[in-house]
Amino acid sequence: MAGKSSTDDFSLSRVPAEARLPMWEVLLVRIGALTALSQFMLGAALGYGMTFWEAFWATMLGSVVLEIVSLLMGIAGAREGLSTSLLARWTGFGKYGSSIIGAVISIGLIGWFGIQNAVFAKGIDEALNGALGFPLAATLTGLFVTAIVIFGFKWLSWTAKIAVPGFLAVIGYGIYQVLRDHSFIELIHSPHPGPDLSLGVAATMVAGGFMIGAVITPDMSRYCRNGKDVFWMTLIGTFVGELGVNMIAVLMAHAVGSDDVVTIVLQTAGWLGAAIVIFATVKINDLNLYSASLGLSNLIDSVFNKKINRGLITFIIGVIGTVLSVLGILEKFQNFLVFLGVWIPPIAGIMVVDYFILKRGRKWLDESRTKGRLPEYSESINPVTLIAWALGFLAGYFVQSGIPSLNSLLVSGIVYFLGMKMFDTSKQSNLETNENVN
């Protein structure tokens, strides 16, 4: 691929035009990030505590938020051919600020990798009646996903071509079974079987559940050929993944009277269906590991000025995530991941404002893009960015009304915009003062 090692996958450079992919290939990977067991669990939780139409509007509200963030981040990533953490160097964060992003995103995604690997391993072990035992199953599944990710986006696309149709086929068969035994109209109008879930909390669950995925959209969209491809990739991916899977899971939860995903799938599609749905977890897990490796590649390059092959980084963090899942440490890691759910969205708020409104680094990006290279200059770090990031996090963490991840994103974007305007005004005033003195 344009002289690059297949395992490096343009981790520290632009994705050239000849390496870009058809929209449907990137779309399959995107849908794979949403058509996973965790998404089905979310839909079942909504159905357990809400009526069909309440769950529909909660999903729509959360999906619109995700689509806006994904589209804007995705367009920037496609135009520049850069991953989220690398693009951040020229969109408000600077060289060292982008390394912090790489660290934060990587820690969060390695955590999710371990948790999802545990889910995958438990499902495989149960399907084999405990023949492997959880430690061996988790080791095998973790190393299996790591091997896929080492070979880059092409292999992610390959697994999506298997996992996504398999998952959708099982869900389709499940809804067929449900509708064969229940009236569709009755299910839509039936009361929810569990305790009430409010619209605000449900929309928060939908938007917050995939907000990190929205922020790292450039990791995928950098392979898109143009902005139109990004639009359809994010729109179809979000609404098929969020709206489609959620509403099917809502109907199944109503029919079975449970939010236990394994019970629902077992009752509708049997053990083979359960195994396929659990296998689809591979699709989200390889993306977790892939984006984590991109973030760490940028961190090592920024801080230590060393370029280490992304494949080697993938292997190391894949082994770490696998070991942690085997040890069971990551079951206690979920509170920290919720914490990251309001720590990561401000990144998008700042990057979108800088790239589309302030356009501070666009001149460097435009000039270097025509040459197919990275800009030769980037600021080291921007204190206004760090303040906006911190205030955005505090808003998301402490403000209880609304959607926390959206609160943190909006506050960070507004604070960054106002802060940079004040900083530029102050700098201009100082220049004029010095000129008058001279």
Write the topology of this structure:
Elements: H1 23-34, H2 37-49, H3 52-80, H4 84-87, H5 94-127, H6 134-150, H7 153-181, H8 184-189, H9 199-215, H10 218-221, H11 227-256, H12 261-279, H13 281-304, H14 310-327, H15 334-343, H16 345-358, H17 362-369, H18 383-398, H19 404-437
Helix pairs in contact: 1-7, 1-11, 1-13, 2-11, 3-9, 3-11, 3-16, 5-6, 5-12, 5-13, 5-14, 5-15, 6-13, 6-14, 7-11, 7-12, 7-13, 13-14, 16-18, 16-19, 18-19
What does this structure look like?
The protein is mainly α and 438 residues long. The protein is 77% helix and 0% strand. It has 19 helices and no strands. The longest helix is centred in the N-terminal third of the chain and has 34 residues, at 94-127.
Indicate the CATH architecture: Orthogonal Bundle
- Quaternary class: single chain
**Range of strand content:** under 5%
Number of domains: 1
Structural class: mainly alpha
What is the name of the CATH superfamily? Hydantoin permease
- The name of the CATH topology is Hydantoin permease
The helix count comes to 19
Order of helices and strands: HHHHHHHHHHHHHHHHHHH
Provide the gyration radius in Å.
Answer: 22 Å
Poorly predicted runs are 1-5
Mean pLDDT across residues: 85
The helical percent reads over 70%
